[in-house]
Amino acid sequence: MIFIANNEKGLFDDVDDRLNSRLTACTCIHFRPYTHDELVAIL
Asked: Which residues, 6 or more positions from 34, have their beta carbon under 8 angstroms from its beta carbon?
C-alpha cells in the first residue's frame, strides 16, 4: 500500500490499534516542502 498525506499523524488517528501498529512500522519517506520557485514552475 502507498499512502500520501500532508499530516502523517492525522492519517493514523482514527485507525484500529492493531492496524495502526502495522502501518506505523512501515517504511516512511519524507519529502521536503516545495520552494516558492518550484511551486511557480509547477503552476
From this structure: 42
How do residues 4-28 score in pLDDT, each as one tens digit?
888 888 878 888 888 888 887 888 8
Residues contacting 8, CB < 8 A, separation 6+: 28
DSSP annotation of 14 reads T
Domain boundaries, the chain: 8-42
- Is the separation of the CB atoms in 7 and 27 below 8 Å? no
What's the pTM?
A: 0.49
What is the Cα–Cα distance from 24 to 20, expressed in whole angstroms? 6
